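G., before I forget:
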Amino acid sequence: MSGLSIKNLSMRFDLPNGGAVQALQDVSIDLKAGELLSILGPSGCGKTTLLNIVAGFLAPTEGEMTLNGHTIKGPDAERGMVFQQGALFEWMSVRENVGFGPSMKGMAKNDKAEIVNHLLDVVGLQDFKEKAVYELSGGMQQRVALARCLANDPDVILMDEPLGALDALTREKMQSLVLKLWKETGKTIILITHSVEEALLLGERLIVMAPRPGRIHTEYRLPFAEAGVGADLREVKKHPEFAPKREEILSMIWDMEEEIMGRSEASA
Amino acid sequence: MTGLILLAVYIGIFAGGYFVLAKLFGGIGSRDYTSLKTVTFGDESAVRPNRAAGILSILTLFLLWGMFTGSSLLPGFLHAPGPFEGQTSFEYTVQAGNERDTATVEVLVHNRETNPDEIVVAPGDGFAKNDSITVAQYRSKLVLFDRNDEIKRADGAKVIEIDGKKVAPGDRVRITGGAVTISDKGTPNFEPDNGLQMEPLYLPAPEEVVSRTFKVLDEGFRGTSLLGHLSWSLFRVIAGFLCGAIVGIPLGYAMGLSNWFRGWFDPIVEFMRPVPPLALIPLVIIWAGIGEVGKIILLFLAALWIMAIAARSGVSGVSISKVHAAYSLGASKWQIMRYVIIPNSLPEIFTGARVAMGVCWGTVVAAELVAAEKGAGMMIMVASKFQNTDIVILGIILIGIIGFGIDMLMRAAERFMVPWKGRS
């Protein structure tokens, strides 16, 4: 069976003072190969923990995950990850950064160069090939991060707020790029975001998570990602269902935030 | 006194230079928007060193050095008043019982390097005869006035006036080119004027240092050439630093990567780091003697902890997302070590290396001051014992230049090796 399957995942963190935090409780997600899933939720709802578990950086307390039928244990090149920022290697040029995965596998020089050249074309950084990454703008750096992840040809791409640190205009261009890459490569993508609009635009499926304990609150299936491929995203936002969905999810998250505030005030 | 005048001249040039240059160039420093930032404490970005001030500062140091040593490189009118040189005289009046007589003392003040003949004077009449003395600059001399007189001190002769002024023991009378004081026993003591210049023993003129430099370059010092002394010091620094880095960097890596290593070595490293290497000199001498081994052990100890701590913080400072990214790109533990942890720690290691080289250079000079047969520190220590102040100053200048050069080289290496430092 192909695709990513997460079953009854729970994660508890033991605190040094003897207490424990239930970061995730009974999370189950089934993702078919090539699906684009965005995950949204207030701070502290366990989004990043979930992604780190799927990436293999953390072992869950309970539950299991399979990718294409085999159990996930530890990090692996089949699950690539794109971070918010600061995860590029400053001591390498753009070309070396993108070629990092193939180098680690010991791929032949020519094959690697071909992959790197192709991906630099795709993300539009061919002219910056030999530049150091710290010479690039934030948006360009995230393009390098995307290309670096794709160079390894992973089955699943995990994105942890990849566009969170970018300005609004760059962010919009990058959203189009993510959609384009998704369609062209057919990768399974899980994207975590704080932005409701981004979650709507970049999710065939959208999961809203609730905090304390982190759990799945609501799931949507949305038409916007498909419509957004190769289109102007501002046009997509004029879709009659877009604004109502955005309001619905915003108020859902507001309610959660208020509940957290109420609870912490009550306990204080 | 000289010190205060020197300070006044220095401040005068400092302030005067500012006003003159401000007048010439219509202001010092920028008048743009960023100049407003200078009022923000801690933000130095708007303060740039004024190049003219830097040049003027160095020139002023040499100017003052020349002025107060009477350097021949400066025109005479710029010299501070020098010590008196030449001939002067004073009269003394002796009383013995009811008799009084006056005689003249001819004084010759000469440079310390020369050895002139005594002045021959006619004895004159009366029971007090004329005298003559020679005295070197910066020295003084008792005038044994009665050695040729007919009535000696033992017979009750007593000096009661100098140049017609009544004097008692402890009094001081100014004369041309010096002063005469009367000692407790009633003997006149002549001190020539020292002027405001420094005695060459304390501070030789710049040209003296330069000519001594060429002399030492030519003849060497204590059987070793000048270059030899400096290279011995440098060799010790480099050998000690390399040993320290070769042990310290892997130790720091181990401490950054393993809880056991961290726990085991933390107390040792944290205790040894604040111990000044100079405090180890006696123990190292007891253990390893004053030869090369002892010095290299000392420098090894000076560099070791600094390098270990730098490597440790370089490893601990790697951002977790870089390690995660490498893992999810399929890197193995060793590959992460080789391609992520080590390059990521290089900026910290270079910072540590710069500090360690500076500390080693200071420590080697200090160690050579204590005991060495060759080296820059030994050179100035031995020179000071023989009062070769020019060699001491020459040595200090060379030590400073080399220390500065080491730091510049380390910075250049840093820019070349870790251009990403501070730019992530």
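Residues 86-192 of chain B form one domain. The radius of gyration of chain B is 33 Å.

More on Monday.
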